[in-house]
Amino acid sequence: MHATSTQPRTRSLRRIVWRTIAGAGLAALLLASGCGSGPSGPAVDNGICGHIEFAGGVDLVSNDSEVFYQFGFHTRGSMSIVKDAAPQAIEVTFLDQNAVPLHIANDCDIMRFEVEMLDPTLATVTRDPALRWRFNITGKKVGTTSMTVAMWHEVHAHFTSQPITLTVVAP
Q: In whole angstroms, how far apart are CA 125 and each of 25, 68, 106, 138, 147?
């Protein structure tokens, strides 16, 4: 009789121990899924907001036409703009390890992209805060330079493009 009265107590203790271990493991997994402080995980619009394991490329589109594409070491396209013309709007889409577009959440404040111009005297880049994944480029003087586009998560880049040739031509 004594053995049967402790058996339910032993099962109950085992369940508590396993639930505690499972809960601790889940908490550790959730904490490890980000790569730094701050929120991570899905955002309100179901886009990505947090650490991206592998970004493999970028696609730049202007007026519904692709102007530059990079996946791994494969690149195609270059950019040409007219000096002193209206700014050219460029939509930026980063690609995952399978060349599938990454949907970054619009309300994610820990993910961003940056454009670096090798010679900023040839062209300027402006941004509209309401259009997070777009930049505008305006030619200032005739010539050729290059630029890169990088996807950032908090304080480190997850992806930086190969140099993108930019030619500013006379009107």
A: 45, 16, 21, 7, 10
CA distance 170 to 101: 34
Tens digit of pLDDT per residue, the chain (171 long)?
Answer: 555 555 555 555 555 544 444 443 333 332 333 344 344 444 445 677 776 777 789 999 999 999 999 998 899 998 999 999 999 999 999 898 889 898 887 778 888 888 999 999 999 999 988 888 899 999 999 999 999 998 887 777 778 888 999 999 999
67 vs 74: CA distance, rounded Å: 14
Residue 50 DSSP class: S
HSE of 78 in the Cβ direction (CA atoms, 13 Å)?
Answer: 9
Q: Is the dihedral of CA 28, 32, 38, 44 positive or negative?
A: negative
Q: Which two tokens stand for residue 74?
A: 């494969």
**CA-CA distance, 136 to 150, in Å (whole number)?**
15
